[in-house]
Design goal:
about 70 residues, mainly beta, four-stranded antiparallel β-sheet, 4 strands
């Protein structure tokens, strides 16, 4: 979502997720998203063309994501 003009936010890009998104966090050029049983990491360096870098299975107790260091 581009909020350069807060009175008129617009969608610049979108990604398709399989499940329900539970949590998301941006750290620099990376977006970390948790779904019910999966963590997906995106490179969002080019905000108009996000790229999936990888996914990992997580237990169903993984409900949120926080980035701390490298």
């Amino acid at each position: 979502i581009n909020i350069a003009n807060p009175a008129a936010p617009r969608e610049d890009a979108a990604v398709t997720m399989v499940g329900d998104i539970l949590s998301a966090e941006i750290d620099g050029d990376y977006l970390y998203v948790t779904e019910t049983n999966e963590l997906t990491i995106f490179d969002i360096g080019d905000r108009l063309n996000p790229v999936v870098l990888g996914t990992a299975s997580i237990s169903d107790t993984g409900r949120s994501v926080r980035v701390n260091g490298n």
